[in-house]
Amino acid sequence: MKSHITETQIQGVTSIANEPFYDERGMFLNAFRKQDDSFSATWGTRMIRQINISCTAKKGTIRGLHLQTPPHSEAKIVRCLRGHVWDVAVDLRRGSPTFGQWYAEELSPKKSNALLIPEGCAHGFQVLEDDSELLYVHSGSWFADAESGVLFDDPELSIPWPLPPVGISERDLALPPLMSFR
Predict the structure, then answer these.
(1) Segment 95-117, tens digit of pLDDT
(2) 136: annotated active-site residue
(3) In what order do the strands lie in the sheet containing 62-68?
(4) Are 60 and 126 contacting, i.e. CB atoms less than 8 angstroms apart?
(5) I want to staple 116 with a disulfide (CB 3.0 to 4.6 A). Which of 3, 14, 35, 177 is the partner?
(6) Does residue 103 have an active-site annotation?
(7) What is the pTM of this model?
(8) What percentage of the chain's residues is helix, strand, coil (to nearest 5)?
(9) How far is CA 82 from the centre of its chain?
């Protein structure tokens, strides 16, 4: 069961598709295998520091766009365990040729896919189905003082969220626009 790795237009943002194994009992999916050559080349020597799960109840809810700033930057792999989400990565690496560009992909259990978001890129998503659940594998530990991000509806980004936005947290509404991000 190999991972199918696809590089996106943003360096380090990688689409990961896995082939589940099905039999009469159900399904088995290897979501992370360090010794898989294609996956290992993408994840590199990063450690796994934390694994988190979020569940979002209401369709249309947007969470993000979040990241941890240096020296606590982290990469993450995001996979949808239940429901259906539109997952977004935004390049916030000053000096990157793709600074301010974004990439989005629908994640769902049916697609058996995930997105790897590297250090310096923000992550956010919109729930396309009630009670959607995400699994996050992080290369870094969480530090409250390192939390940052950019505003989900910044006109500079022009992200065409698929549904009318709902459920935006006060914290996310207070994030700066792209050009004020430090």
Answers:
(1) 999 999 999 999 999 999 999 99
(2) yes
(3) 102-107, 85-91, 121-127, 62-68, 147-149
(4) yes
(5) 14
(6) no
(7) 0.92
(8) 10, 40, 50
(9) 15
Strand partners, 141: none
Residue in the block written with tokens 């560009």: 101
How far is it, in rounded angstroms, from Cα 43 to Cα 32? 10
Please give the CATH number for the structural domain made up of 3-180.
Answer: 2.60.120.10
- Confidence grade of residue 39 (pLDDT, cut at 50, 70, 90): low
22, 72, 123, 136: the active-site residue:
136
Where in the chain are the domains? 3-180
- Helix (H) or strand (E) holding 69, with range, is none
Q: What does the block give as tokens for 80?
A: 């949808």
In the DSSP assignment, the letter for residue 130 is: S
Among residues 22, 66, 84, 123, the one annotated as catalytic is 66
Backbone phi, psi, residue 30, to 5°: -85, 105
* pLDDT, mean of residues 28-57: 81
